[in-house]
Amino acid sequence: MATPREKVSAVDPIWTALRQQAEAMAGLEPSLAGFVHATILQHDRLEQALSYHLAHKLGGDDLSPLAIREMFDDLVAADDGFGQAVRADLSAVFERDPACHSYLDAFLFYKGFHALESYRVSYWLWHEGRKAMALFLQSRISQLFAVDVHPAAKIGRGIMFDHATGIVIGETAVVDDDVSIMQDVTLGGTGKESGDRHPKIRRGVLLSLGAKVLGNIEVGEYSRIGAGSVVLKAIPPHCTAVGVPAKLVNCDCGDNPSQQMNHYIEELPDNTG
Ligand SMILES: CC(C)(COP(=O)(O)OP(=O)(O)OC[C@H]1O[C@@H](n2cnc3c(N)ncnc32)[C@H](O)[C@@H]1OP(=O)(O)O)[C@@H](O)C(=O)NCCC(=O)NCCS
User: Fold this and answer.
1) Given the CA of residue 183, which atom of ligand 1 is nearest to it?
2) How would you classify residue 199: left for phi > 0, otherwise alpha for psi between -120 and 50, otherwise beta?
3) Ligand 1 centroid – CA 208 distance (Å)
4) CATH topology agreement for domains 1-152 and 153-273
5) Does 229 contact ligand 1 (Cβ within 6 A)?
6) Could you tell me which CATH number the domain at 153-273 has?
7) Model's pTM, two decimal places?
8) How far apart are CA 260 and CA 65, in angstroms?
9) How is domain 1-152 classified at the CATH fold level?
10) Ligand 1 proximity of 209 Cβ (cutoff 6 Å)
11) pLDDT (tens digit, 9 = 90+) per residue, 14-67?
């Protein structure tokens, strides 16, 4: 018969791994043991640990950590999807970032992960009609992590904000699941449109460092935008676009070219800019 710990391990392997990694870190670095205990080991669930960790970062003179924990707890109680998104995001960082060697590294120290999960609270507050509180959190996230995501922007699961400094995502932007976003990326408006004016980034896209995608345009699934590129026109699925303004340099009809790293160049569609 399975022990309680074995049952938890079977249903929540990420939380089980986090706890094991936390115990190991506390042993290897005794001066961090108190921090690791307070942040991970004293909690029963991943959601509680995250709520504690981020509330201590986001809280301050204007709003206490306790008040922020209550918001996290309300979100967890209201929406099962939050925990799933957190686990998918943590997995995304661990699996995609070659510098990340454990779930614990990302959970404790990666501000892209902190910014993303804090945004998820602001998104929930926004849709609960608590817009002032959502904007308060946006402002704190921006101050602390140098990531400015409007609370109304819609961001899927399995997202990695790598390094994260300088990421800006506008109000009507949509980012589907499994997208990776490097530092200094902007999903912005052109300044010429109103209403629905921000990009729609489809599943599995890679937005390389410094990429700017401007306007209500779609970057098709599993496409890649090169470092420093400025994208002003829609990018078809499974394509790579680079430069200022961005042009297609290759397109691939494979199932998942961005992960297979399959880069052959073939005849390009008409809308190459
Ligand atoms: C977009 C990217 C993935 C393309 O990689 P690739 O498919 O291997 O493409 P290639 O290197 O074969 O380049 C194809 C062409 O595009 C050009 N190119 C590639 N990236 C470019 C960029 N960011 N800007 C302008 N031109 C670029 C190449 O010079 C080459 O042109 P050529 O055929 O005239 O020689 C890669 O260039 C990139 O930007 N990677 C992201 C790096 C990053 O964000 N790292 C984060 C570090 S913290």
Assistant:
1) 48
2) beta
3) 9
4) no
5) yes
6) 2.160.10.10
7) 0.91
8) 43
9) serine acetyltransferase, domain 1 (1.10.3130)
10) yes
11) 999 999 999 999 999 999 999 999 999 999 999 999 999 999 999 999 999 999
